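Per reviewer request, we include the raw input and output of the structure prediction for the construct analysed in the revised manuscript.
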Amino acid sequence: MKFIFTIMASLFLLVQNGCNSDNANDEEQYTGIIKPAGITTYQYGTHRLETQQKVYALKSDKINLENYEDQEVEITATLIEGYPVDGGPVYLLVTKVNK
């Protein structure tokens, strides 16, 4: 019985650590200027991040991106699966904003 408990506890820790590392790897930092999305052909995202290299569509479930419009910021975000579509940009879910 003790052997089974040890195996189950080890499996739980392996799965938990695997999930945590996957989530940490999904988040990346991007630096640019946040702008309102405006009228677009791709019609997703509330805002966009304009970097020196490209433009990203943005949304956030917990941060009001309007507070950062026209400001250069560093964001932490994860890719939203299934995008880009309709010739649009990569779609990011913003989890943190730094000025």
